[in-house]
Specification:
With about 190 residues, the protein is an alpha+beta fold. It has 3 domains: about 50 residues, 2,3-Dihydroxybiphenyl 1,2-Dioxygenase, domain 1, CATH 3.10.180.10; about 70 residues, Roll (2,3-Dihydroxybiphenyl 1,2-Dioxygenase, domain 1), CATH 3.10.180; about 45 residues, no CATH class. The chain is about 25% helix and about 30% strand. The chain is built from 4 helices and 9 strands. The strands form 2 sheets. The chain has a 5-stranded mixed beta sheet, with helices on one face. It has a 4-stranded mixed beta sheet with strand order 1-4-3-2, covered by helices on one side. It is globular. The chain starts with 12 loop residues before the first strand and ends with a helix. The relative contact order is 0.14.
């Protein structure tokens, strides 16, 4: 969901815990761990009640007790992503993030690179969250999953036809134009 703001950044991200019973279980686990949270009804599309908490770096995390899957409503695009693949966050301490996300939220570690990069999962995918050590806490990037490489090539062709010059191949497309807002990026997908 895009939220109008004068600043770019990440307002929050949500994790679907499955259903209302799993959300109650998550609330009990947070209580036992002494983690404060708020209960809210967000009003976001297809989403029911949520628990909102902050991780050790201050990122706002919503735990949702089920979300209805809806058909894409953004019209025809060169490529329609299958799903959000992962979010990578810059954090002060990867070990602290690993402890919090594994012990409190039940994630599992997929890979480490020294103490500077961490990949974690909560399902069969290699990772849904990644963390990179930094002095600045902010979102680094998010990635969408597409069907296969041909979809990346098709998207690269679409971007080039609409005036973007790709600096580095379809695997890491960086428009060589002025920086884009999140809404501009999403409108090109």
């Amino acid at each position: 969901m895009l939220i109008p703001s004068s600043e770019s950044g990440l307002d929050h991200y949500a994790l679907d815990v499955g259903d209302a019973a799993a959300l109650e279980s998550a609330a009990s686990a947070l209580d036992r761990a002494g983690i404060s949270y708020e209960t809210e009804w967000s009003g976001e599309a297809s989403q029911g009640p949520a628990l909102c908490l902050r991780d050790p770096d201050g990122y706002r995390v919503e735990l949702i007790g089920g979300i209805e899957q809806v058909s894409p409503s953004y019209g025809p695009r060169a490529v329609q992503p299958r799903k959000l693949g992962h979010i990578t966050l810059l954090v002060n301490d990867c070990k602290r993030s690993a402890e919090f996300y594994s012990e409190i939220l039940g994630f599992r570690i997929s890979d480490w690179v020294d103490d500077v990069f961490l990949w974690m999962r909560c399902n069969p995918d290699h990772h849904g969250l990644a963390f990179s050590r930094s002095d600045t806490v902010r979102m680094h990037h998010f990635a969408f999953e597409v069907v296969d490489f041909s979809y990346l090539a098709r998207q690269a062709e679409h971007l080039m036809r609409t005036g973007y010059r790709l600096v580095y191949g379809p695997g890491a497309m960086v428009p060589a134009r002025t920086s884009l807002s999140t809404s501009e990026i999403l409108s090109k997908i």
